C-alpha cells in the first residue's frame, strides 16, 4: 500500500470540498474507507446525484489520473480488458516476410517449416501488440489511478463476471502472457442507476453505498458553492421547486447539476422573483421529456404555493355537471365575484 490519501474522514470531506464537491458525513466516510482499505466502492442510486462526479473529484483531489470504463448493453470483454492489435501484427508480418522466408528456407519438409514458424509465434503475442483497455491499463499503470466503471447496470451480466478478478485481486490474466498484478492499487468506483440487480459476487467484492438526492439544505449549499449568481432567497425557493418536481412520476427526475443550471439560467435572465410564468419559460432546463414537461407545468403553481396560472396550462377544473338535454359532462368555472 502507498501512503494514505487522507488521514481522517474530515480531511477527505475537506479535500473533496476544495474541488467543489460537497459531501455529507456518510459519503465522506465511504471515500475515506475506499482510500484506506483500497477496496472498490459500488455507488447505487438514481441518475444525477453525483456518483460519476465523485470519481472525477477524487482523482482531482488525490492527483491521480482518471480512467473511465463506460458500460453499455452488449459490451464485450475486449472493450473492458484488452485486445490484440491485429492490424499491427499483420503489418509486422508483411514487413518481416523476407525474414520468415529465410527462417524456413532450408527446412527439409513442410512439417519442419511450420514448426519453425510456430516457435516464433510468441513474438506476435507479446506486450508490443497488446492494446490495453481501461481495466488492464489501470493494473499496468506505473502511476496510481482512479478507475471509474460507470453505469455497470447497463452492461450484461457476463461483463460482471469479467470484473471479478480485477475487483477481488487487482489483477488481470492474459492467457498468452500470464497475469498482470497492479503495482499501485487503483481507487475503483463503480456506479449503478439501479436499472437491474447486480450479482451478489460483484457486490461482495465492494464496499457499498446507496447515494440518494441530498437534503434540501445540502442541495442549497451545493447551489451556493457554484456561484450561480442567483440570490440566496430565490435559490432556496428554487431548490424547493426542484424537490417537488422529483416527487412527480417523471421519466427522468432533475439532477443536481440541472438544478445548478436552472439557477444560472434564472440569474442570467435577471429574475427577481420566482413566478409560475418565469419557471414555465425555463423549466425545460431540468425537464427533458414532453410528458414530463406537461406534468411539471401543471405542478408549478402548486409547488410555488401560489394561485398562479402557467402558460397554456388550464387551471384545475371545477366539479362536472351534467347537461340535461344530451347527458354529456361539461365543466364550469366558478363565477368571479
TrEMBL record:
Entry protein name: MoxR-like ATPase
Stored Pfam families: AAA_5
AAA+ ATPase domain sequence ranges: 37-215
SMART domains found in the cross-reference section: AAA
InterPro entries per record: AAA+_ATPase (IPR003593), ATPase_dyneun-rel_AAA (IPR011704), CbbQ/NirQ/NorQ/GpvN (IPR050764), P-loop_NTPase (IPR027417)
Matches recorded under SUPFAM superfamilies: P-loop containing nucleoside triphosphate hydrolases
Region ranges (Disordered): 308-337
Single annotated GO MF: ATP binding
Gene3D superfamilies, per the entry: P-loop containing nucleotide triphosphate hydrolases (3.40.50.300)
Amino acid at each position: 500500500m502507498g501512503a494514505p490519501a487522507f488521514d481522517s474522514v474530515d480531511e477527505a470531506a475537506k479535500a473533496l470540498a476544495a474541488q467543489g464537491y460537497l459531501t455529507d458525513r456518510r459519503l465522506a466516510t465511504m471515500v475515506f474507507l475506499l482510500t484506506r482499505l483500497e477496496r472498490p466502492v459500488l455507488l447505487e442510486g438514481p441518475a444525477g446525484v453525483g456518483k460519476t462526479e465523485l470519481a472525477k473529484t477524487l482523482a482531482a483531489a488525490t492527483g491521480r489520473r482518471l480512467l473511465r470504463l463506460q458500460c453499455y448493453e452488449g459490451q464485450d470483454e475486449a472493450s473492458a480488458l484488452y485486445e490484440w492489435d491485429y492490424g499491427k501484427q499483420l503489418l509486422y508480418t508483411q514487413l518481416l516476410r523476407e525474414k520468415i522466408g529465410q527462417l524456413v528456407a532450408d527446412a527439409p519438409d513442410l512439417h519442419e517449416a511450420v514448426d519453425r514458424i510456430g516457435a516464433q509465434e510468441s513474438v506476435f503475442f507479446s506486450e508490443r501488440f497488446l492494446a490495453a483497455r481501461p481495466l488492464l491499463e489501470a493494473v499496468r499503470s506505473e502511476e496510481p489511478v482512479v478507475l471509474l466503471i460507470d453505469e455497470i447496470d447497463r452492461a450484461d451480466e457476463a461483463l460482471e463476471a469479467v470484473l471479478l478478478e480485477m475487483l477481488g485481486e487487482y489483477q488481470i490474466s492474459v492467457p498468452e502472457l500470464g497475469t498482470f498484478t497492479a503495482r499501485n492499487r487503483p481507487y475503483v468506483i463503480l456506479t449503478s442507476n439501479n436499472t437491474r440487480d447486480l450479482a451478489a459476487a460483484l457486490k461482495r467484492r465492494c464496499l457499498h453505498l446507496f447515494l440518494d438526492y441530498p437534503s434540501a439544505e445540502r442541495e442549497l449549499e451545493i447551489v451556493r458553492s457554484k456561484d450561480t449568481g442567483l440570490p440566496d432567497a430565490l435559490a432556496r425557493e428554487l431548490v424547493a421547486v426542484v424537490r417537488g418536481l422529483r416527487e412527480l412520476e417523471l421519466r427522468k427526475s432533475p439532477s443536481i447539476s440541472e438544478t445548478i443550471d436552472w439557477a444560472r439560467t434564472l440569474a442570467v435572465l435577471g429574475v427577481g422573483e420566482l413566478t409560475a410564468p418565469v419557471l414555465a419559460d425555463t423549466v425545460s432546463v431540468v425537464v427533458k421529456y414532453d410528458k414530463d414537461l406537461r406534468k411539471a407545468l401543471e405542478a408549478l403553481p402548486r409547488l410555488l404555493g401560489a394561485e398562479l396560472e402557467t402558460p397554456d396550462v388550464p387551471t384545475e377544473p371545477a366539479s362536472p355537471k351534467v347537461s340535461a338535454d344530451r347527458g354529456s359532462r361539461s365543466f364550469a368555472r366558478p363565477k368571479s365575484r
